[in-house]
Write a structure and sequence with these properties.
The complex is a heterodimer of chains A (153) and B (282). Chain A is an alpha/beta fold. Chain A has a single domain, classed as Rossmann fold. Chain A is built from six helices and five strands, in the order βαββαβααβαα. By secondary structure, chain B is an all-alpha fold. Chain B has one domain. In chain B, 69% of the residues lie in helices and 0% in strands. In chain B, α3 packs parallel to α8, α5 packs parallel to α10 and α6 runs antiparallel to α10. The chains are: A alpha/beta (153), B mainly alpha (282). Chains A and B meet through loops of A and α2 of B.
């Protein structure tokens, strides 16, 4: 069994956001939304984290650092792009700091649209990413072989 | 027999206590909080997960510091609350072990080869100079009163009435050893990303978490052991839970001191420890 599903630790990286999305991410920890009930913890260091939440446009100054933060995470990592800035540049698309969206800099597994997105949407994305971890397991050769044998019988 | 069961089960009890503490923490903030067995899942996940490629992995001490830290904290349960391994000067060895577990934080921080880790280690070193001295002086008070250096001969009714000042000192020392606010300056997750544990991942981090949980259990057991004794085991267990509550309450309700403020506070504690010792001797 994969225990990442039971205790996903989260790290937030602000890649040139206006702080709107960061406040919504912080709202995940308050009594109303409380993601700690899923075993999540907000970790300061990317080396401890399993899931990276990226907010902001990934500006020129931030690209190198964003890559570094992604590389520092241990294997089996997932990335969630939070907010329309991280998806496409949002209102800053025409600005001179915007070069390319976050998913061109690092691989992104899930997108949460909205400016800023609601905390419910971020929780939904988190749970879907965790389900995806199960999906990875189904692709392993051992299980598919067993299934094919059963299907033949 | 009970002694050995407690010693072997100490990591599990510590993790369970950590879960209770997190649940309590959440309930105090009006949240639902994680399930009580959450720390077990965390540790299993960390062991399952691989290490990240840190430059520290090449350093021998970086690899070995969390393991020594875990073993050191486990060995402390040989002496407290049941004297399983008893010899003539085991009180002194216990003092040495508690200081060593603080020193291993410093080793882990410097070995991690990261500015944040080094910052954490330096903060720990600065505060260690003050708080370990007052801790040792405070424990000498108990040695002087009980007149024994063997923990097996320690009076089972406790020594709170002979040295009431020591209760305050032990509480303050406990909260800085366990990195509980307002004295968690060496760890400070929002300033220096948890200091010495920043670079750790995988099994190393799991050992650090286990060691931290066991250190928490140790101090929750050690303070009632010194002050109230183990005469009545039920009362003793209640007092352990009371200390868990007090430490959690402190963690939830207080903000953090700066390094210089922590040192100032612990200079006052050092003076209190000296007064305490002088009062007992005279």
């Amino acid at each position: 069994m994969d225990y990442i599903k039971k205790s996903p630790w989260i790290c937030v990286y602000n890649a040139g956001s206006c702080n709107g999305c960061d406040l919504e991410v912080l709202a995940l920890l308050n009594p109303k939304y409380d993601i700690e009930r899923f075993g999540c913890e907000l970790k300061a260091s990317p080396r401890h984290a399993d899931i990276l939440l990226v907010t902001g446009i990934g500006s020129k100054q931030n690209q190198k650092r964003l890559k570094l933060v992604y590389e520092q995470m241990a294997s089996k990592k997932k990335v969630i792009a939070v907010g329309s800035c991280a998806i496409s540049g949002g209102p800053f698309r025409e600005g001179w700091v915007f070069t390319e969206p976050v998913d061109r800099i690092i691989p992104v597994d899930m997108y949460v649209p909205g400016c800023p997105p609601r905390p419910e949407a971020i929780i939904d994305a988190l749970i879907k990413v965790l389900e995806e971890l199960d999906g990875d397991k189904k692709d392993k050769p051992k299980q598919t072989r067993r299934r094919s044998k059963k299907a033949k019988k | 027999m009970t002694e050995w069961v407690f010693f072997v089960a100490a990591p599990f009890i510590a993790l369970l206590l950590q879960g209770i503490r997190r649940k309590l923490n959440a309930r105090m903030q009006n949240r639902i909080g994680p399930p009580v067995w959450q720390p077990f899942l965390d540790v299993i996940k960390l062991v399952q997960k691989g290490k990240s490629d840190s430059e520290g992995n090449l350093n021998f001490f970086f690899v070995i510091a969390p393991i020594i830290f875990f073993i050191t904290t486990w060995v402390m349960f040989l002496f407290v609350p049941f004297a399983i391994w008893s010899f003539e000067f085991d009180f002194l060895l216990l003092i040495y072990l508690t200081i060593l577990s603080g020193g291993l934080y410093v080793l882990a921080g410097f070995a991690s080869d990261s500015p944040l880790g080094v910052h954490g280690a330096m903060r720990e070193m600065i505060t260690m100079v003050v708080y370990e001295t007052s801790f040792t002086l405070c424990l000498f008070t108990f040695i002087v009163i009980s007149g024994t250096l063997t923990l097996a001969n320690y009076p089972p009714e406790g020594l709170l009435l002979q040295a009431p000042l020591a209760a305050v000192i032990l509480y303050l020392i406990g909260s800085i050893e366990l990195k509980i606010t307002p004295f968690d300056t060496a760890e400070a997750p929002t300033e220096i990303l948890e200091g010495f544990s920043t670079e750790f991942s995988g099994a190393g981090l799991a050992f650090l978490e286990l060691g931290d949980a066991m250190k928490f259990l140790f101090f929750c057991v050690f303070i009632p052991f010194l002050l109230f004794g183990t005469g009545n085991m039920w009362l003793f267990a209640l007092l352990v839970l009371l200390f868990v509550f007090i430490f959690t309450f402190s963690k939830v309700t207080t903000p953090r001191f700066r390094v210089d403020q922590v040192v100032q506070v612990y200079f006052v504690v050092l003076i209190l420890a000296v007064i305490n010792l002088a009062w007992v001797i005279i």
